[in-house]
Structures are given as C-alpha cells and as structure tokens.
Amino acid sequence: MNWFRPLSIKKKLTLFFLVFFCIPFLIIGVIWYNKTTQTIENSAVYYNAQWIRQLNKRLDEYFARIKLDTQTLPGDPRIQQFVKYDPSDAYSLYLLKSEISQEIYPKIAYGNNEFAGFYMYSVKGAVLGDQIANRLGVDIRDSVEPDESFKVIGIQKVGGVPVVMVQRSIFDNITFGFAGAMIYAFSLDRLLDMDDGRKPGEDDHIAIIDTANHQFLYHSDFAKWGEEVPGVWREQMRETSGYFIDRTAEEHKIIVYETSKATGMTLLSEVPMNQLVGTLPNLRMITAIVGLIILALAFITFNKILLEVKRLVEVIHLSRIEHKDMELKQREARLQALQSQINPHFLYNSLEIINSYAIEAKVRPISQMTVMLAGMFRYSASDPRHPVPLREEIHHIRNYLRIQQERYEQLRFDIAVEEKDLDQVQLFRMILQPIIENVIIHAYENHGLHPGEVLIAGQAEDSCFKLQVIDKGRGMDPGTMAKFNKAFASEDVESAGKTIRQIGLWNVHSRLRLAFGPPYGLHILHSGEEGTCFEVRLPYRPADEINTWS
C-alpha cells in the first residue's frame, strides 16, 4: 500500500472535512459547552445570591418595622394592668381582655397583611390569644427568652401553613422585672412571596436554617422540616454568606446562602444543575455525531445551538429584569418603612402630656381642647371604609364645633337628634365635618361675617333618615343651588363630580351614593340671604334590624 501516492478528491474532501471541520468543531464544541455551563452557573449563583440578599433584607426590614411598631405596646397601661392582674379575678380580667381585644389588637393586625395571630401571657398565669395559639405544635412560652425585649423565636406550621413567631417581652413598669410576653405570628409564605415570577418548591427550593442547632426551621419541601442540615453543607457554610455545589446526590445542586445579622437565621436557596444547563449535554453529543456524519446536519445542529444560546440569553435577560424589579420593590419597602415610622401613638401621647400640663396649671380650656382634639384624631384615624353609628359621628362633630367655638366666639350650635335614632342610623366617618367646614367658610367668612348659628337636626321617615345642617349665613344663588342638586341627583356619580368644585361636599355625597345607592346622599333644601339647609339622606333601620348591618 503506497501512502504517498496522490489522494483522491473524495479522500481529500473527507480529510479536509475531518481536519478543518469535524475536529475543530468537536474541540470548539467541548470548549463552548464548558464555558457556557460555567457562565450559566456563575450567572445563577450571582442572581440567586442577589435574590437571597434582597429577601433577607426584606425580612430584616419587616422585623425592624414590627419591632418599631410594637415598641410602645408593653408600656401601654392596659398591658401593664394585664400582667399585674391575678387570674383568679376572672370578671375584671375578662373586662380588661375585652378592652385589649377591641382597642389594642386591631392596631396590631391593621395594615399587616402577613399578620396571622397574637398571643400574650403573664408570669402570673393570665393568658390572652386568638385561635392560632390553640393550633401551635408546642407551648410557645417554652421558647421565650426573658432577657430579650424583642426576638424572632422560631417557625412553626399551623394548619399546614408556616408561621414565624416573634417575641416582645413585657417588663413591669414599677419593678422592671420580666412580667410576661406578647407573641406575634406572621405568615411566612406571604413574607417570602416576592411576586417576581419565581415559585420555590417546584424546581428550586427556599429554606431557613437555625444556625445554632443546624436544623431546617423552614423548607419549601415540608418533609424536611426539623431535619438536620447535611454535614457536607455545614462544612461548606462556615462563612456568613456564599455558595457551593452539592455533588453528593445524584442530582447536583447549587446552594446559595446568607446569614441574617438581625435574626441570626440563615436563608438558603437550592437550584438543581440540570435546571440551569437544560439539554446542553444532549446537544453536545448530538452535535459531535452530526458533525462526523455530514456537513448538512452540522449546519442544522449549528442552528439548534444558536436557538439554545438565544434561549439562555433570554433567561439571563429575564433574570436581570427580575433583579431590577426587586430593586424597585426594595425602594418601595424602604419608603413604606419610613412612612410607618410616623406613629399615631406619638401624637396621642404628646396630647396626653399637654393635657397633664394643663391640668397641673389648672387651665381648664386647654385641657378640654386637648382631650377633644385627641378624640378627633383617634376617630379620624380609624378605618374609614366601615359604617359607624350616628352616635359616634355626632360625638365627633360636637368636639369639632366646641374647638371651633374657641376660635369663633359668636359661633353657636345645637344638635337636635332623638336618642333612639343615634344607634339606628349608620353612616361613614367624617361625613358631617366637611359640611360644617363648608358652612363656616362659604356661608360666613367669605361674606365677611362672623360664624354664627349652626343647627343639626334629624328626622326619620320610613327607611330614610334625613339629617339637616342649617346655618344663618349668606346662601348661594338659585343657579348654583340648582347645579349642585342636579349633580347630587345624577346616577352617573363619576361624570357628575367633574362639574363640582367643592371637593369636600362631593366626596361626602359620592361616598354615600356609591355605598348605599339612590336616593341617599346630599341635597340642598333651600339657600338664600337668610341661610342654607343641607340635607344628608341616610339609610334607616328599625331597632330589630340593627344587627344586619355589615
């Protein structure tokens, strides 16, 4: 056999294909696969680390806000009275519990969508809690640290739902000794819900580890709750944050973790490697085989590779978009945290201090105004979406008018509403105040008059209660009055509101009309040089139907 004779064209083409295409193609394919896998791995580590960091910050900021919102509760007189009560005084303790449940508990739950339950106890044996306390797996009092004023004490499953338990210790304001504790439960699923399209528990997992005991406090796979962290993981997790690849199992995983300085717990993410590389190993083998067979199939394989690269680029691009979304949500959370620092209790406490000074100085008008102003703030800060009895609104407007009398010496008012109607009429908060303000400004001050008489009168007629606000100032011209009444009578509330400039009056009318429907809302009975009469039409229920109100 002569190896040096000239090669045929077929052999030359075959040799050319092998030397200049197949071998380089295989080499480039192997290098490309390794580099691509490494790039994807690095990208996954980076974005999962960012995700874990953002999630940890969110939890830390949330617990910081809870700590700030609840820091004044242990000093509340009713809480202090609770921890000092003897449980044997069942009746007095029952009354105090009712007061706490009606006035303090709503302040804890309102505005916290993650709030799941509340439990409080004293060292003397008094206990107060909602239903969640009866469904906990262990006695949460065993986990309380008396020396800790605020602490995240653990995570438990309640009805198949994970909740995180937060302790706020109560210290006696006289002896300064540990007197009890308040335990708050928050839904961990809602705290971990980042709304970013990721769903831990399907392809990847989220876990929270008790760093001291090396146990899973939480895992998106419920079967691992309470299990010990693998020893290989503990060896790798010596730093406060980082990542490693777990190759001990058949399915390799990328583990990204970070320990919170605020809670001491470690947040961890598990991402399977095959989820990242997808079909890249199969593509490598297919590409090599196709490259050895014919050039045409190599071209098809090349197109497949391009499509796969495009898919991976889109995945990375989406990850970057998710990262930007998390940054925006973090900024929004910071803004909300700053806004939540404006604690209404600070205002109430300040007014109480002013009242105390006024009492000590024997300045009765200042003391009365302070008490009335505190009551107004407390009333206006309550939930505006739920109806209240007319009695509460009348009490509020009486305080408002008394304060206005300190400013306008000639202001006189009278409220003529029958006692039986005060609890049978429902309306929303802050309905009368805008009308009274409108009277003072437009009926008196704008005409150079000192605010004078204001009469509030009510009359029940079948299913409608008519509450009238009457003044003795200057009224409006007939055209303006007709324009108002036409807007008030319109069924298209949104369109009619565009023709009214008095925003306060229109807000009152639209709230009543949208909630109760026609014919309820505002109506002007008459208006002229002798004064104006506004009529507020409200639903009326007999005494035996009061409990049907929602």
General description of the model:
This protein is of the alpha+beta class and 550 residues long. The protein has 16 helices and 17 strands. Strand 14 and strand 15 form a beta hairpin. The longest helix has 61 residues.
Summarize the structure.
This protein has 550 residues and is an alpha+beta fold. The chain contains 16 helices and 17 strands.
**How many strands, what sense, and barrel or not for the largest sheet?**
5 strands, antiparallel
Low-confidence stretches: 194-201, 337-342, 546-550
How is the quaternary structure best described?
single chain
Please report the number of helical segments.
16
Given the helix and strand composition, which structural class is it? alpha+beta
- In helices, the fraction of residues equals 40-55%
Q: Which geometry do the CA atoms define?
A: flat
Strand order of the largest sheet: 2-1-5-4-3
Distance between the termini: 103 Å
* Beta-strand percentage range: 15-25%
The radius of gyration is 35 Å
How many strands appear in the DSSP assignment?
Answer: 17
Mean pLDDT score: 77
Helix-strand blueprint:
Layout: H1 9-69, H2 77-84, H3 90-103, H4 105-109, E1 115-122, E2 127-129, E3 150-158, E4 161-171, E5 178-187, H5 188-192, E6 205-210, E7 215-219, H6 231-236, E8 241-246, E9 253-259, E10 265-272, H7 273-277, H8 280-293, H9 295-340, H10 344-360, H11 364-380, E11 388-389, H12 390-407, E12 412-416, E13 426-427, H13 432-444, E14 453-461, E15 464-471, H14 478-489, H15 493-497, H16 503-516, E16 521-528, E17 531-539
Parallel strand pairs: 12-14
Antiparallel strand pairs: 1-2, 1-5, 3-4, 4-5, 6-7, 6-10, 8-9, 9-10, 11-13, 14-15, 15-17, 16-17
Helix pairs in contact: 1-8, 1-9, 2-3, 8-9, 10-11, 11-12
